[in-house]
Amino acid sequence: MEAHSKKMAEVKLFRTWSSPFALRTVWALKLKVVQYDTIFEDLSNKSPLLLQYNPVHKKVPVLVHNGKSVAESFVILEYIEETWKQNPLLSEDPHERAAARFWAKFGDEKVLPSIWEAFNSEGKEQEEGIVKAKENLKYLEEELKGKKFFGGENIGFADIALGWLAEYENVFEEVASMKVIAEDEFPLLSEWKRTFADAPIIKENWPPRDKLVTKFLAHREANLLQKVPK
């Protein structure tokens, strides 16, 4: 529970400690300086409240505001942006807002699946996955030309959506002994990762690195075992 909240806040966030999708919501709320209570979920034993507030997908994150729930990380980000106007995550310019949403969606539909595929494979299959991932990442590298963040000079919607790259991707590389985002191939993206990860509000809310490594090592080993012919 947030230390600065002396009583149950009107905003509650259902999450797990390791979900990068839930972390987006944490960052957005922190950047907006919104007080909230955190309810950590065990997805192997989901609470009745989680099932009540997200009966369709039954997963995190779920934001509850004044008793009404909002599910799915991008939908939650939009809700936060519309509800709390301070420290905007989206530009006032319609085209820039559309671009931010486009890159956020591109990250989840193209970048994440391709890196995840490489992470959960070995040998030639992993090499092919890395090639596919790099093809997607080239678009992000191009988009960062002349920018500090995807949102310009400040962290914005697309940065939060792609923020998992700044730490989780490093963990994936370590666990799977692979290199996807090399400094010489992706200098702008590499610099963005460092700048984003070191921003105080972002840095203060990363999950423990050692716990992430342990979690994803077990996850990868389990996935690789499933691929072994029986």
Automatic annotation (TrEMBL):
It catalyses: RX + glutathione = an S-substituted glutathione + a halide anion + H(+). Residues 9-88 form the GST N-terminal domain. This is glutathione transferase. The lineage of its organism: Eukaryota, Viridiplantae, Streptophyta, Embryophyta, Tracheophyta. The keyword Transferase applies. Its EC number is 2.5.1.18. It comes from Rosa chinensis. Keywords: Transferase. CDD domains: GST_C_Tau, GST_N_Tau. Belongs to the GST superfamily. It comes from the Eukaryota. Residues 93-216 form the GST C-terminal domain. It holds the Pfam family GST_C. GO terms for biological process: glutathione metabolic process. GO terms for cellular component: cytoplasm. GO terms for molecular function: glutathione transferase activity.
